[in-house]
Amino acid sequence: xxxxxxxxxxxxxxxxxxxxxxxxxxxxxxxxxxxxxxxxxxxxxxxxxxxxxxxxxxxxxxxxxxxxxxxxxxxxxxxxxxxxxxxxxxxxxxxxxxxxxxxxxxxxxxxxxxxxxxxxxxxxxxxxxxxxxxxxxxxxxxxxxxxxxxxxxxxxxxxxxxxxxxxxxxxxxxxxxxxxxxxxxxxxxxxxxxxxxxxxxxxxxxxxxxxxxxxxxxxxxxxxxxxxxxxxxxxxxxxxxxxxxxxxxxxxxxxxxxxxxxxxxxxxxxxxxxxxxxxxxxxxxxxxxxxxxxxxxxxxxxxxxxxxxxxxxxxxxxxxxxxxxxxxxxxxxxxxxxxxxxxxxxxxxxxxxxxxxxxxxxxxxxxxxxxxxxxxxxxxxxxxxxxxxxxxxxxxxxxxxxxxxxxxxxxxxxxxxxxxxxxxxxxxxxxxxxxxxxxxxxxxxxxxxxxxxxxxxxxxxxxxxxxxxxxxxxxxxxxxxxxxxxxxxxxxxxxxxxxxxxxxxxxxxxxxxxxxxxxxxxxxxxxxxxxxxxxxxxxxxxxxxxxxxxxxxxxxxxxxxxxxxxxxxxxxxxxxxxxxxxxxxxxxxxxxxxxxxxxxxxxxxxxxxxxxxxxxxxxxxxxxxxxxxxxxxxxxxxxxxxxxxxxxxxxxxxxxxxxxxxxxxxxxxxxxxxxxxxxxxxxxxxxxxxxxxxxxxxxxxxxxxxxxxxxxxxxxxxxxxxxx
Length: 724
Description:
alpha/beta, 6-stranded mixed β-sheet, 6-stranded mixed beta barrel, 26 helices, 23 strands, about 15% strand
């Protein structure tokens, strides 16, 4: 049989690595990394390779399923897509007419290339923005500080290939798989230095020139301490600071108290390491900071910690130079008013926007454009501020996604919720509570496009094989659902037409489908602009064409008045996590260990794929990493089953005793091990027993004050050995 070769893109995680898929008939026989990809350069992980198994897995949901018994009973009947869409259409129209469009929540998990189409569907129903998404703990808390401080609506801009000092802050190797080759080459050929900052001694840390093992939740304090040394020793570009920044004097005064000694007491990093890191960053330039979710997401001080890191980036300028912070058009989330149907001047903070939680968390409404998750589940139960009657969850296992899943479960089981639909690959715990389950196609099985990681460039993503059964891409699902509600807003015949229309809308380029596939890597005005330097000097960062940055002052804003509009201080003030040995010593008596959750594993992405043999064999059971000293105190040895508890609840895991974490800190990875793996004889675990989010508080005063960010990476816990 002839072997067909297809070059495409893996969307199994946010790296978006180029993939080459070989198929015989409709069977995948081999998958490799694409060596011609300008970003991943052939890098590929085991998770992507196991797409072979996922494509053929008979346990996948392959046809629409309608609930046949009581909700959660596990009885289903197969139906066709026409009948499934009839159910969606009738419930959407009925609930919209009776309760209003805000009573219908369209939820998604991590991006599967369909973010803006979900927004268009929500606007078609009659309520603009996201319905529900974990943006409060992912992506946007990184983007907001970059936008307000640097005038860059992107998550990061690290040029690791050309920097003399590379700072990898709260990031795992699997999250920068495509950049590791650039880092290694830069070190080998140019002698670049690498600083790793993390609560865990990771794979990146073992090769670092300097490793700073930080106390979870104290990242903002470390950034202030580093700036103290840089300013005191004048390790900054005076001309750049004078001409292109705003509020330097106020920043300098504020950080003057953050001496290395004080910073050491707060962060648990030795003072001499803080000084060494600051001198390396300020002396071996250009310096590039690469922060991910660790420092500025999933903390009660998330946004101000992100602000501190972005102020440090500005202080280490000049920016937009090789090896520094690069301004990259197209590096943020894809959005366009013509696609999302959200007017450019739409105010998500006004009452008419109908976003739950916007009054309490105005920054999240403004930047996340969504309902606050915990408050939304609370609204299902209380029917305040208005009833939530219908939820459609796309690629979102809510029970393993959000903080305080006890509240999520209560909402999903509530009779107030009249209709639940879930679109996913498997019968997840959330899908098992649904009235309708819809099958999804994965990355090798769909014709799509994604701009998230490609810096404005078009990289085509055609299907390599047909999906099994009646699995549909999310784009096709939104298209057909949208046609039922308002066909004029959904005029395309299929996903391919949607792709080509989107390319023309975003980039002004007309392509046929064959041209899109064959040209593979297409430069656009945005990608060509990204290669230019110091765009702020030539007016290419502002729509008015004036020199400067996209901030009100036109400068990098150390002092940011806009922050005050969202209830924050205008300077990046450090606040101790709301639950810690220092802020809540009374809680620490019973829960003495600092808990950080969600670190990445090589074989899983969030809670997905624990059923896949090639991935599950690497991490068979849920586990918790704890320091030998803490294990000895609790009479725990490596491999013991232990109970991890917090004031919210308790879960179980196997102890992994290691100096990977410092004394007083424990680390739990994210997956949840929700699915069994029959091939390896390994069980699945109930979310109530192992989901790390059971330990995390939700709502009230337990989150970041303006953003609602839950403290998944810095809270308190206790560990005891389980008997039997």
